[in-house]
Amino acid sequence: MRPPHPLTVLIADDHPIFRRGLCGILAGDATLRLVGEATDGEQAWRMIQELQPAVAVLDIHMPKRSGLQLARLVSQQRLPVELIILTMDTEEALLNEALNLGVKGYLLKESAISDLLQAIHRVAAGDCYISSGLSGALVRRNATREVLRAQKPGLERLSPTERQILKLIAEDRTSKEIADHLQCSIRTVETHRQNISQKLELSGSHSLLRFAFDHKAQL
Question: 2.30.110.10, 2.60.40.10, 1.10.10.10, 3.30.460.80: which CATH number matches 149-218?
Answer without folding.
Answer: 1.10.10.10
